[in-house]
């Protein structure tokens, strides 16, 4: 018998969809973050983030099958990811994580990763 993945432990696809939906509700009205999404509709970005997070946490490997290696720094390089953008991203993601009402250990593990990822993607300190 195998140990369930984090993806399975927190509820699978539906939980990640909810996380991403709530996150993008905040992004949609954020004057700094919204311009970083070229599509009129945030739908494609939602799908990409959902697939990425699901794969990272032990779910389906659809992200890599469709898009290859995540290459997060490279994919974010064209955008100004400064401390303000990072903080805004984290603010919206915090609301999204809190909306899931996860067990404390799961919430902590997820938030730790999201914080580390956000800090690692800073590519400038200019406004």
UniProtKB/TrEMBL annotation:
Q: Which GO terms describe its molecular function?
A: heme binding; metal ion binding; oxygen binding; oxygen carrier activity
Q: Which cofactor does it need?
A: heme
- Domain of life of the organism encoding this protein: Bacteria
| Pfam families (UniProt xref) | Bac_globin (PF01152)
Q: Which UniProt keywords apply?
A: Heme, Iron, Metal-binding, Transport
For this protein, the record's SUPFAM superfamilies field holds:
Globin-like
Fetch the InterPro entries from UniProt: GlbO/GLB3-like (IPR044203), Globin-like_sf (IPR009050), Globin/Proto (IPR012292), Globin_bac-like_CS (IPR019795), Hemoglobin_trunc (IPR001486)
Q: Which family does it belong to?
A: Belongs to the truncated hemoglobin family. Group II subfamily.
Under which name does UniProt file this protein? Group 2 truncated hemoglobin GlbO
The gene from which this protein is expressed is: glbO
């Amino acid at each position: 018998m195998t140990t369930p993945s984090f993806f399975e432990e927190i509820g699978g696809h539906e939980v990640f969809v909810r996380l991403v939906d709530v996150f993008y509700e905040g992004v949609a009205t954020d004057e700094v973050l919204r311009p970083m999404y070229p599509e009129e509709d945030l739908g494609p970005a939602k799908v990409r983030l959902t697939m990425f997070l699901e794969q990272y946490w032990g779910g389906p490997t659809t992200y890599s099958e469709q898009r290859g290696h995540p290459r997060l720094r490279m994919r974010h390089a064209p955008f100004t990811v400064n401390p303000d953008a990072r903080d805004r991203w984290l603010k919206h993601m915090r609301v999204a994580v809190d909306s899931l009402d996860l067990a404390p250990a799961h919430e902590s593990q997820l938030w730790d990763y999201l914080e580390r990822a956000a800090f690692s993607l800073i590519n400038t300190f200019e406004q």
